[in-house]
Every structure is written in C-alpha cells, then in structure tokens.
Amino acid sequence: MKIVILDGYAANPGDLDYHLLEKLGEVVVYPRTSDAEKVERAKDADIILLNKVQIDAETLAQLPKLKYIGIQATGFNVVDIEAARKQGIIVTNIPAYSTDSVAQMTFALILAVTNRVEHYTQENRNERWAYNKDFCYWDTPLMELAGKTLGIMGLGNIGMKVANIARQFGMNICACTSKNSSNLPEWIQKVSKEGLLATSDILSLHCPLSDDTYHFINKESLEKMKDTAILVNTGRGLLVDEEAVAAALHEGSLGAYCADVMAQEPPSKENPLFGEPNAYLTPHIAWATYEARERLNKQVAANVKAFLEGNPINVVNK
Predict the structure, then answer these.
(1) pLDDT by residue (tens digit) across 105-130?
(2) What pLDDT is recorded for position 139?
(3) CA separation (Å) from 155 to 178, 184, 212?
C-alpha cells in the first residue's frame, strides 16, 4: 500500500514522526507539491494525504489507482469531493483537532488589542517607562472585557470554545447560529445577523465558508457595526471583504481587525490591511501548536487505518 503525502512540511517540519503511518504502508513525503507536480507524484499512490494541494476532477481522472484521499485539516474545499465520490474514492478530514489552539489564538488577538501588548512592549524598549514621572506609563486607552458583548458567527466546536472562554472573562455572549435556542446554554443569546452586527463590541467569525457566508463582512455590514468594534477572523479569509475592512479602519469606522487568515495565502505584500496600524495579522498559525499538530498526525493515521480495515471514519463524501 503506497501512501503519498503531498505537502507535509506545514504540519510536520520535522518535529513529529510518521511511525503510525509507516506501520500501514510505504510512506513517501514531499514537503510541498506544485500543481505541475501533483499528478506525477500521486499516480502510483493508493492513498494520498494533503493539506492545501488542490485536487479537482481533472486531476482525479488521471489517478485511476487512487482509493483514498486524507485531508490533513478540518476544511475540505481543496478536494472536489463529488468527483471523488463518483470515482469511488473515499475522502476524509480531521475534525476538532485544533479547537483549543484556535480558540486560544482568538483570545490572544483580542487581548493584543484590548491591552495594547505590542504597543507597550515597544514603548518599554524605547525607554518610555524608564523616563516616566509616574510609577506606571500608559498613553492609549485600555479595555476591560467584563461586561462587553462578544458576538460569535457560527457555534461549532471552535465557536463554542470561544464562548466558554468569554464567559470566564465575564462577557455577555450572543451568537448567530443555525442551532435552536433550546439547544444553547442559557447564557448565550441567539440573534439574527443584523442583531449580531449591531450589538457586538467584539465580533468573532467561526462559521464555514460557503456561498452564504462569502464576504459576510463587507461595506454594508461594516456600516451596521459599532465604530469601536473589534472584528476577529480566525475562520476563513474570504468571510471578509479585506478592502472594505481596510477602508473602515482607515476611516475610523472600525476599531480594530484581528485575523489569522487572509483571502489569499500567502498574501500579496500590496494587501491594504498591511498599511493599517489597527490591523493585527498573524500568518495562519492558530492551528499550528505542537499539541494540535500532534493530534492531527495521530488522527491522520487513525483515519487511514480505519479505511484499510473497511470501516472508514470522518468521511466527507458519503
């Protein structure tokens, strides 16, 4: 059984091993694979594993030996799952492996804004505190989270984890979700999209990307938000119209934008968000803690093992 990993470096730059997979077959690992290389590298594989390599219907048609595609991530839009189903290829994903890490990053970004961590670290390096006349030094407003309203778009595993953390900070929590109110904790208020935009002091996006959620945040929705609001996106880059967000930041009609994801990855250096001081941007690292990647690595092997035993799990194209 030949197992080919097409883009292994991001999830495993060398600090993890593949011993669980190696018990299941011959494992070939490529750090990265371009569009021009993917058919040649996958043509003899029974199983391919990938993170961000795009596998469309045209590619699948050139891989008659392929039986299984394991996506090393939760999202599965990189694979044409319907074309795979028609070709009899099982496709699986890895749900919930990064829940704790992404929720942690969500609050790391929020606190970076409310407590101005980067600003005051730099001010200390510039000796502003050392030469201050008072015992403390502060020159920009700070914000306490207690009593503020956190709005959450999407209450899946990560959205719910974020809600639970926010509760410990004493925040009021509202959410736009497909779940029935009767299935929500009493401390989460279900609201409409319009209500979410209007009431949130901090709005955090945790919904899947779909036709309905593409550019959920745009010029029109930004106009419905508080001009002091903090917008957080650790979901998908295309949930947000980045040009509209950059314009709102520039005009002062949005307090801050925090994102670990962008519409294009890697992003263009010309992206207008890079010129905005109130844009807090990290390079898609929320999922990348050692602990999350270790869980991912183990679950990838568990998915392959279950497939080989005839009882596939985490299948996304049934």
Answers:
(1) 999 999 999 999 999 999 999 999 99
(2) 94
(3) 8, 9, 16
Residue 119 known to be catalytic: no
CATH number listed for the domain at residues 99-281: 3.40.50.720
Domain residue spans in the chain? 2-97+289-308, 99-281
Among candidate residues 58, 194, 220, 265, the one labeled active-site is 265
CATH for 2-97+289-308 (3.20.20.140, 3.40.50.720, 3.40.50.800, 3.10.350.10) = 3.40.50.720
Candidate list 236, 242, 276, 293, residue with the active-site label: 236
Give the mean model confidence (pLDDT) for residues 143-147.
Answer: 98
Catalytic, 284? Answer yes
H/E element holding 38?
helix 38-42
User: Rounded CA gap, 107 and 105, in Å?
Assistant: 5
- Tokens 């904790």 appear where? 185
Residue 21 pLDDT > 90, yes or no?
yes
SS3 173: strand
For the stretch 262-304, pLDDT in tens is 999 999 999 999 999 999 999 999 999 999 999 999 999 999 9
* pLDDT of 318 strictly over 90: no
Choice among 206, 284, 293, 295 that is catalytic: 284
Q: How confident is the model at residue 46 (pLDDT cuts 50, 70, 90)?
A: very high
pTM for this entry: 0.93
CA distances for 196 relative to 10, 149, 163, 176, angstroms:
35, 10, 14, 7
Quickly list DSSP for 147-191.
TPEEEEE--SHHHHHHHHHHHHTT-EEEEE-SS-GGGS-TTEEE-
Examine the residue annotation and report whether 236 is marked as an active-site residue of this protein.
Answer: yes
